[in-house]
Here is the input.
Amino acid sequence: MKELQKNLKKIVSDIESNLKNQEDVEYVKNQIYNLYNAFIDEFEELENKSTEKVESLLIRYKALEDRMSEIENSIDKIENDIYIVESQEYDFDITCPYCNTELSVDCSEGIKHSVVCPVCNQTIELDWNDHNHHEGCSHGCQDCGNDCEHNCEDEDEEEDDM
Here is the structure.
């Protein structure tokens, strides 16, 4: 801006030295100042519009950043629920079917297939809904979907005989 004002003063000075009629000098100076003010007004309007757009973008950016943070937190929670980190403890609560005592089972050292109730000393079998697990099966029969030596067809025939 200062450079523009400096150039304007130089132009006005040049006009004053080259025009002889003082009335013409004043007229030209007024027109130049009017033109200068029109440019300044236009620049200020552009600056205001630019500032508004930048502020609008900043608000949208902040909203997107907040939303992204929410999504990342949700993903972190899902990952914590899905993936087991070996350093974490995994406890779950069960109710003893014999005495209705609620107890906590620690699975941080691996999945347990049974626990003993500390109140009634009964063994509680834990069902992990592992429908594909068969005694003596190496997981390849029709039920398992893998190559196993266990012959489930023989089992089916034995069940039919009964």
Observations:
- Confidence is low (pLDDT under 50) at residues 150-159.
- Residues 22-82 form the longest helix (61 residues).
- Residues 2-82 form one domain.
- The CA atoms of residues 113 and 156 lie 26 Å apart.
